[in-house]
């Protein structure tokens, strides 16, 4: 009789990340530093508002200061960029998150590029992506980093495995592909023009679904024993994977909700703390004399 697949509990992974952060946040507090994340929400999309609220609540529970900037739907690209630049110049802000997607009419890429690299805690800038591709990003994109963290937490091997990524967005599909590649996986990226998609997915030892379509990945696409990571979230609390159908073949699988999502938020918090520590250490270096008193 076939063993039941391992359910990859994102809440457990997130809790482990937050537990390690608590001591670091306490150490910063002793130095008079409170990590601060500024979240920008443009428009009144209910899903985006919910995500921003969840992130703010997670910050407060951990002792991270959360600043929410709400902008109207009619905000122009220039106005949004101006807000981002002011946050860049605020020394009390350590991380900036622009909630995606922004309303039509705003040049999202221009807005992302306005975020200072040292505050790009969600890895959305071109420079952040490039550093991630070369394997030395301070802040890789949060959801891709969450996916790798889940694999590591459960000791699921990456090296030598064939990873199939369904989706090629610049903040999910592409960055997770390079992160897996940097961990010595062989990576295939699928997209809307991929021919014989079920056959391609069926060759994957690791399957990452990041396509934005509910229950898109079918059970008979999955190779027996494959690890399935569902990065989608669609109305009705369903992911991009037909969870029930994929259980029959997967050896391990993330649920939706309580899979990749909680780890994404925990990763965002970690990056904010990383940025705060880096800034605090830089400031201390500037203050300390560079000579020896005899």
Commentary on this structure:
The protein is of the alpha/beta class and 294 residues long. It has two domains: 28-121, Leucine Dehydrogenase, chain A, domain 1 (Rossmann fold, 3-Layer(aba) Sandwich), CATH 3.40.50; 142-260, 3-Layer(aba) Sandwich (Rossmann fold), CATH 3.40.50.720. The protein is built from ten helices and nine strands. The strands form two sheets. Strands 1-9-8-7-5-6 form a six-stranded parallel beta sheet. The protein has a three-stranded parallel beta sheet with strand order 3-2-4, sandwiched between helices. Strand 2, helix 2 (46-62) and strand 3 (65-71) form a beta-alpha-beta unit. Helix 1 packs parallel to helix 10. The relative contact order is 0.15. The mean pLDDT is 95. One of its GO terms (biological process) is purine nucleotide biosynthetic process. Keywords: Amino-acid biosynthesis, Histidine biosynthesis, Hydrolase, Methionine biosynthesis, Multifunctional enzyme, NADP, One-carbon metabolism, Oxidoreductase, Purine biosynthesis. It catalyses: (6R)-5,10-methylene-5,6,7,8-tetrahydrofolate + NADP(+) = (6R)-5,10-methenyltetrahydrofolate + NADPH; (6R)-5,10-methenyltetrahydrofolate + H2O = (6R)-10-formyltetrahydrofolate + H(+). Residues 141-279 form the Tetrahydrofolate dehydrogenase/cyclohydrolase NAD(P)-binding domain. One of its GO terms (molecular function) is methylenetetrahydrofolate dehydrogenase (NADP+) activity.
């Amino acid at each position: 009789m076939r063993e039941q697949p391992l359910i990859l509990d994102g809440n457990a992974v997130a809790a482990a990340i937050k537990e390690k952060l608590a001591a670091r946040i306490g150490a910063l507090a002793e130095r008079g530093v409170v990590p601060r994340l500024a979240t920008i929400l443009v428009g009144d999309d209910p899903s985006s508002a919910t995500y921003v609220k969840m992130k703010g609540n997670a910050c407060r529970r951990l002792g991270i200061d959360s600043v929410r900037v709400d902008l109207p739907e009619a905000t122009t690209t220039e106005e949004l960029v101006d807000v981002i630049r002011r946050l860049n110049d605020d020394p009390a802000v350590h991380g900036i998150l622009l909630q995606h997607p922004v309303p039509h009419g705003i040049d999202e890429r221009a807005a992302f590029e306005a975020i200072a690299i040292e505050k790009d805690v969600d890895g959305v800038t071109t420079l952040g992506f490039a550093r991630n591709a070369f394997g030395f990003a301070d802040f890789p994109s949060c959801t891709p980093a969450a996916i790798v963290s889940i694999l590591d937490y459960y000791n699921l091997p990456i090296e030598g495995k064939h990873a199939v990524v369904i989706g090629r967005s610049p903040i999910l599909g592409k960055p997770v592909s390079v992160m897996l590649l940097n961990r010595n996986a062989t990576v295939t990226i699928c997209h809307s023009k991929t021919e014989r998609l079920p056959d391609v997915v069926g060759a994957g030892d690791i399957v990452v679904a990041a396509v934005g379509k509910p229950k898109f990945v079918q059970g008979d696409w999955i190779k027996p024993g494959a690890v399935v990571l569902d990065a989608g979230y669609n109305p009705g609390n369903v992911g991009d994977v037909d969870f029930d159908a994929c259980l029959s073949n997967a050896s391990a699988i993330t649920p939706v909700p309580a899979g990749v999502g909680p780890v994404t938020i925990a990763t965002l918090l970690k990056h904010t703390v990383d940025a705060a520590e880096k800034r605090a250490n830089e400031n201390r270096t500037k203050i300390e004399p560079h000579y020896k008193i005899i």
